[in-house]
Please model this.
Amino acid sequence: MDIGRFKQIAFLLVLLSGFACLAAQRFQIRAFAEPTIIGKDEQLTFTIEISGEKGFRAETPKVPELKDFVFRNMMTTTSTQFSIINGRMSESLTKSFVFNLLPKRPGNLSIPSFDMVINGKSYNTDVVSVRVLDSSIAGKSPSQQARPYGYGQRMPLFMPDPFDLDLGFEPVGEMSIVAIPDKKSVFVGEPLLVTYRLYTTQPVSALELKEEKDFGGYGKEVYSEPSRLNFETTKFKNQRYQTAVIKTLAISPNRAGVIELPRITAVAQIGRMGLFTQSLQSESVSINVKELPLDNKPPDFTGAVGSIKVSESMEKSLVRIGETLEYRLIISGNGNFNQFSNPEYPAQQSFRIAIPVTENKVQAGVSGTRTIIYTLIPKHEGKYKLPGVSFNWFDPAKESYQSFKSVPNNVEVKQGNVLTYISNVFQKDNIRTLTPFNPKHEYKSSKLFINSPLYWMLTVLFILSLVPSWLYSRNKKLKDTDPDLAAQRSSDKILRKYLKQAEKSAMDYSKEFYPHAEKGLMRYLSDKYHIPHRLSIQEKLYQMRLKGLDEELIQKLEEFLKRCQEARYMPGGFNEQVLSEDLIALKRVIREFTKLSYTRKIFQW
Amino acid sequence: MKSRNISLTTAIFLLIFFFFTANLSAQQGNGSEQTPDYETALKTLLALEQKGIVNADLYNQIGLSYYHQGLMGKAVLYFLRSLRLESNHKEARNNLEYAFSQSLDAELYPQPTFLADLFRKGIDFFSLNTLAIITLIILVLTILCLHWLLQSPHGEEKTVQVMWLLIIGFILVLCSVLLAFKYKDYNNINKAVIIGQMADGCSGPGEEYGNLFTVHAGLIVHISRMDKDWALVTLPNGGAGWVHASVLERVKP
Model:
């Protein structure tokens, strides 16, 4: 590439960028009214739209003195548009100021020029003409209406719907909560529905109900509360609004006079991003509540007011003692279901009347069906004419008291049988009534057995009874499997007992040492070598010799036994000084005998 | 032999007849149409309770008095106290279920499955005292079986003894587990009832926290935690929130 060609290209690039800079400084201002032909009670929007590359700064235009129009409100919208043309990305910005104007009179009217400042420089819009007709032109399609244009050369599009915008929106429009009662004048107890609607010209993304202020004189319940705002377009005072039901309350006035309906407070989030919030409170709305007429008021009137239908049904005409009979009173329609009590079933000689059970299928306590179930329990056999109940209510539409009188029902009561009882057993889960209130004068305090010491003592005692049984069973098993070992253990036990006594006597220098020692030793040896106890000492020694025991050991035993005999029976045979020597001799004899067949040491003296 | 069978059958029928006749007479004699003075009766019953009398019938009657005076929360509380002492108290069970059916929060109680319902009925069939006695008897039987097994001659076949021991031992384990379960439930201090007409459940222990739910008198809840005057409760449907302690009363007095 030569230098001359490079210079040409560089020049072109500089030229293009210069044009680009110039273009960045340019913006377009358009002013237009929509619609341009309107009825005298209709509202128009006058829009000033500034569009250009991002970076311009437009101040909110001041509204000039309007001779022919009333200025209602203004809102601004901003939108950004990205475009890529020939690989170059551009970002354009459009800012609109939308003024809502209401014409003062019919005729050809002009919207004067608006002054505005953009990037520090002043600009004026053109005067826009509007034709205001004497009659309303509502219903005409937008295409039938002329679309004027202002400063810009391009024909404007429809005004952007503010509910579809989310960027750069500033809340300036109208918004309110309106309480709409379905009746303005009611009787005490006559329910009415109050619908709370949100009216807005702004794009509400969310509404948070904050508080419900009550003024007394009524009972209320939520009739419906939608989970989302379902907007619909409506005209209210000649202004296009978006409206949605927030809540419907069922109000049942309980005193006469003028009562103010609940006012609700909410916070609306505006725009999809919910960047702006606005607090709202419903307007104060009152209704007139009339007292129920005293003329012809039935004595057993329980307070029911509304448009009510009453019917009845008796379950059966034949009942047995032990069975129950159900009488149903069905009250349906629109009324103050939460404000009247159940009529009482007249007392009967031959029937016990249980407390009635109420089944409600009522919405918000004002519309639906209430079934009152009276359970009658027959006491005596016979044929009876049951009167049923009477129910009175006040009908606000007729402005008079209405009455329902039950037709007497013929019922036959027969003696109960086994089947009656069985069928009652199977019907136990079907709970229709409370048990009778039948308090006693005295009650015994019940104690928890598991907390008593007796319970745990018995438990431990029973468990401990296993120990002797186990020991006994173990000995028994040992006798069966190893009789020698069993005999040895038995003799050890006996020896231990007698020797303990002997040792004690020795410590006390008592003569009793010798009989204990002799008896213990011989019993031990008898058990050990299976020698009968009934034999004399000499015979036992003989038996031992026969069993082939060590002669030297038998002689030692014989000597010790002789010593015992001497100490016990010979005069002067007992000597306290030799007692300890005899004890040692005894231990020596026992040790040697125990060594004979078992290496295990039984005694550790 | 044939005539003996006939006499036995006749005797059984006669017994059944006398039983039902007595039952029906008792039913006939129960009724009284006069509306009792619940307020006065309640005062008398509460005075008995304050004397320290702990009795399932007394609690049931107190519950009924409260119910008839429109105090659903207190009524449910006392029906539960009655069942706490005697889970097989038929009247209290009936009244509690009736109160549930009238409760504004009835839909918060989950519908038990057939097996769960059967299990609950099985547990409730025996009161704590009855179950304690049954367990003791089963323990004695188990010990007798053990004695039998221990004292059986050495070398003899012991299959029958072992079989009985296993069967009775299994019943003993079952009864012991059930007894422990019931005893734990008896001492449960976290079971409570909403006694205020309405209670708001908040997301934190204070009125400044957001409202999560509103419950009504008579709803049974479980207290998980206390924070000064606020209790974190779990609802029967598993939901949880903080309610002011003044609207609650524990079932265990």
User: Anything to note?
Assistant: The beta strands of chain B are 191-194, 198-202, 211-216, 220-227, 230-234, 240-244, 248-250. The radius of gyration of chain B is 25 Å. Confidence is low (pLDDT under 50) at residues 20-34 of chain B.
